[in-house]
């Protein structure tokens, strides 16, 4: 969000309209928060957590589109490539939640990142629903209450963190300097109430 202030602004406009200033987002808001849903989908596509999934081993001889795959072969699915195919996702390196929206609704004809980011078949990630719901709620709650401010270098240029990925099985931004501040007095109140409820529960 620090890199894309206009996208942050659009999400906050939607949150203001649907949720309003007096409460935090809830799962009952899910169907109405189309733009927030699209941000979550684009996050899973743009800088996916496991770009090459998890390797699988073929237990018996197989064939795929004329390729013979002998038993014992290791198969690595390039999910990154599937979700950065420019024919399916124009300008794939750019973060564009709009690519998932048509006529104000999520467009079911666009390839769904959630069908590729969590692996495939019998060993597909069992945490995918928990993870997707948590991601949606985290994005909604953070953007509802906080403004994320992009960091600038000493010359005043916006810091470009978009291509800086930490290497490894799991990928993620190396370091994204940014700051966050309450969007308004109402937002600060919501954060303080939520924090005190959290402490009471502990
Ligand atoms: C954004 C978050 C997550 C991503 C991108 C992710 C992705 C994946 C992927 C790609 C696999 C390998 C699937 C395959 O073998 O093809 C996997 C497996 C697994 N994930 Fe996740 N996962 C996430 C969150 C979670 C969460 C929150 C949980 C638990 C609550 C979880 C539990 C597991 C388990 C237990 C497996 C192993 C399944 C098996 O081998 O049978 N994951 N995940």
Question: What does this protein structure show overall?
Answer:
Belongs to the cytochrome P450 family. Heme binds at residue 125. Keywords: Heme, Iron, Membrane, Metal-binding, Monooxygenase, Oxidoreductase, Transmembrane, Transmembrane helix. Its main location: membrane. It is found in: Membrane. The chain is α+β, with helices and mostly antiparallel strands and 202 residues long. It has a single domain (5-147, 179-201), classed as Cytochrome P450 (Cytochrome p450, Orthogonal Bundle). Helix content is 33%, strand content 14%. The protein has five helices and ten strands. The strands form five sheets. A two-stranded antiparallel sheet has the order 1-4. Strands 2-3 form a two-stranded antiparallel ribbon. Helix 1 runs antiparallel to helix 2 and helix 2 crosses helix 4. The longest helix has 18 residues, at 128-145. It starts with a helix and ends with a helix. The structure holds protoporphyrin IX containing FE (HEM). Protoporphyrin IX containing FE (HEM) binds next to helix 4.
Can you summarize this structure?
The protein has a single domain, classed as Cytochrome p450 (Orthogonal Bundle), CATH 1.10.630.10. With 202 residues, it is an alpha+beta fold. The longest helix is centred in the C-terminal third of the chain and has 18 residues.
Descriptors:
single chain; 202 residues; alpha+beta; Cytochrome p450; two-stranded antiparallel ribbon; two-stranded antiparallel sheet; 5 helices; 10 strands; binds protoporphyrin IX containing FE
């Amino acid at each position: 969000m620090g890199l894309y202030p206009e996208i942050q602004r659009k999400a906050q406009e939607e949150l203001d309209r649907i949720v309003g200033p007096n409460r935090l987002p809830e799962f009952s808001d899910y169907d109405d928060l189309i733009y927030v849903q699209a941000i979550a989908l684009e996050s899973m596509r743009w800088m996916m957590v496991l770009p090459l999934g998890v390797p699988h081993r073929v237990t018996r001889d197989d064939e795929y589109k004329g390729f013979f795959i002998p038993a014992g072969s290791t198969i690595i699915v390039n999910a990154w490539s599937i979700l950065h195919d420019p024919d399916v996702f124009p300008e794939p390196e750019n973060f564009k939640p709009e690519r998932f929206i048509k006529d104000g609704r999520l467009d079911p004809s666009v390839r769904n990142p959630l069908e590729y980011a969590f692996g495939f078949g019998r060993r597909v990630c069992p945490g995918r629903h928990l993870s997707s719901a948590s991601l949606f709620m985290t994005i909604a709650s953070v953007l509802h209450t906080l403004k994320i401010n992009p960091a600038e270098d000493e010359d005043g240029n916006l810091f470009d963190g978009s291509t800086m990925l930490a290497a490894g099985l799991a990928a993620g931004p190396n370091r994204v300097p940014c700051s966050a501040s309450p969007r308004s007095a109402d937002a600060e109140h919501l954060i303080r109430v939520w924090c005190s409820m959290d402490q009471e529960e502990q």
